[in-house]
Every structure is written in structure tokens, then in C-alpha cells.
Specification:
By secondary structure, the protein is of the alpha+beta class. The chain starts with 8 loop residues before the first helix and ends in a 6-residue tail after the last strand.
Length: about 140
């Protein structure tokens, strides 16, 4: 991907939604900038891990951290890339409702890149954050 050509949010949306899991999560690209992305995920009752409390399973939050950090790299890679390592911190329980995630590139490398993401509820409260290492060598021709 050229450094001067940033994929459009519609282009990234189409690429992301090709994945059945991303489609199931209801991922929508809200904005994209150089080394940054903002996504939303549409609430699903299947996310609930505790029926009485209505808490969202932590795996959903971890998935959002991973894919948001990963796709923050799209301005340099033009594509999603494999995760090498991921750390997620949970800050508060996620209750029923749509989620929003913001990701940004921390360091872009020729082989490995680092990006982080933050997941928020509809009121803007931080639910989870994390940082990942991603494999970013140029694709073989």
C-alpha cells in the first residue's frame, strides 16, 4: 500500500465484512485515518455470558481489541494481518448495548508492528483496552 493512498472507510468495511465472524459481530467502520480506525459492533443477545447480570463475554471485548488494533494497520498494509501476540485489560463489565472501538498504530515495522485499541460502551465508558503485535512483512509477489 502506498503511503499516500489511504483506503476509504467503505473499502475497509467491505473487506472486514467478508469475514463471517466480523459480519456476525455487526462491525461497521466509523472512520479511518493514517494509522487509526474507529469501529462499532452491533449488540447481539448471544454475547451474554451472565443472563442475570446481562454481562457481555470477555471474548467479545478481546476480539474487538484484536481486530481494531489489527485494522488500524490498514493504512500501511492495505489489509488485515496475522496477530503474533495480544494483551487485553478489562476495566469494567460490558452490559447490553452496541460497542465502539478505537485503534491506533504505535509502531510500524518491516516485519512486526504494534497497535493498540480501546473498547467503549454507548456512554463512552472504557470497557477494555489492549495492545497487539502483528506480522507485517510485505506480501510475496
Amino acid at each position: 500500500m502506498s503511503e499516500t493512498t489511504l483506503p476509504t472507510k467503505e473499502d475497509i468495511q467491505a473487506r472486514l465484512r467478508r469475514g463471517p465472524y466480523h459480519e456476525w459481530l455487526g462491525i461497521e467502520v466509523l472512520s479511518v485515518a493514517e494509522g487509526e480506525i474507529e469501529l462499532s459492533a452491533k449488540w447481539r443477545e448471544e454475547w451474554v455470558v451472565n443472563v442475570e447480570g446481562g454481562y457481555t463475554h470477555g471474548g467479545i471485548l478481546a476480539a474487538l481489541v484484536d481486530l481494531t488494533a489489527d485494522w488500524a494497520l490498514v493504512s500501511q498494509t492495505g489489509r488485515g494481518v496475522p496477530t503474533i501476540d495480544l494483551r487485553v485489560d478489562y476495566h469494567r463489565a460490558a452490559l447490553r448495548g452496541d460497542l465502539r472501538a478505537k485503534g491506533k498504530v504505535i509502531k510500524f515495522g518491516s516485519q512486526v508492528s504494534i497497535a493498540e485499541a480501546y473498547v467503549y460502551d454507548a456512554d463512552g465508558k472504557l470497557l477494555a483496552s489492549g495492545r497487539g503485535a502483528y506480522s507485517t512483512p510485505k506480501p510475496k509477489a
